Amino acid sequence: NALNLFHENKDIFVDLSIRSNFNLPKLHAARHYPAMIMMFGTTDNYNTEYTERLHINFAKDAYRATNHKDEFVQMTCWLERKEKILHHDKYV
């Protein structure tokens, strides 16, 4: 099984300092797929679009809105403004 082979050998990436860890949602979910398929059947609606979309909204778009200096503060303000606009739109 390719997934088991990967998990058996992934430490080499940490040993070579290519990655510091493998705490990745997709990788974690992949370990649960066989049991879930046996319990519930096909994997309809098992996708990562939601988390990938969040990454684009919360990280990439926010970073692009900064001047790339002291970006964390700027990204936080940008996200706050986006949330306030969203709440206002829902209210109105």
Description:
The chain has 92 residues and is an all-alpha fold. The protein has helices at 2-9, 11-15, 25-40, 49-64, 71-91. The longest helix is centred in the C-terminal third of the chain and has 21 residues, at 71-91. The model has no long low-confidence stretch (mean pLDDT 85).
The major sheet is characterized as: none
SSE string, helices as H and strands as E: HHHHH
Q: What is the rounded Rg? A: 19 Å
Tell me the fraction of residues in β-strands, as a range: under 5%
- Shape by Cα distribution: flat
Fraction in helix: over 70%
N/C terminus separation: 53 Å
Mean pLDDT: 85
Give the helix/strand layout.
Layout: H1 2-9, H2 11-15, H3 25-40, H4 49-64, H5 71-91
Comma- or semicolon-separated keywords:
92 residues; mainly alpha; 72% helix; flat
Short overview:
The protein is mainly alpha-helical and 92 residues long. Helices cover 72% and strands 0% of the residues. The longest helix has 21 residues, at 71-91.
